[in-house]
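Ticket #4471: structure output looks truncated?

Reporter: J.K.
Steps to reproduce: submitted the chain below (154 residues) through the standard prediction queue, then opened the result file.
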Amino acid sequence: MHTRTTTMTSTRTTSTRRTISRAARTLLVVLALPLAACGGDGDAAPAPVRSYEVPLHIDDSGDEYRYLVTGSVPDFTVGDEVTFVVDNTGTLNHDLRVVGPDGTTLGTAAAVAPGDVLELTVLFEQAGIHQLNCVVDDHLLAHGMQEFIDVAPA
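Returned output as attached by the reporter:
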């Protein structure tokens, strides 16, 4: 936050300066009240707008490994809390990492063996393209195991 200080000189009488000063103090108090009313913990996570699960399964049968949506793909929106439920229907261990548009990792779920299920819940706080990827061994780089989802503004 930048603060700008301005010095004003005036040839007005002392009572006029006091009136302006009193009015300025009143204005500052009135403007500060809504900010104080916000209160709360500045570190608290925002409450999700919607919460839902997205079921995925894995296909690692070819040269390119994939996360596939089981059912319809939702319209992702900022404020959504999404739990990705990944059924490892493949033949190898797989994990899940969700990366935001700015490159920040939103969450990572540990690798699971074939036949197991992993879950990862993330809160989408930014609009833009997010990545779902697997970082086990060479799955991401050699086999392109990533999907892209577009999160729309709220």
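Triage note (M.O.): checked the attachment and the full token line is present. The longest helix spans residues 14-38.
Status: closed, working as intended.
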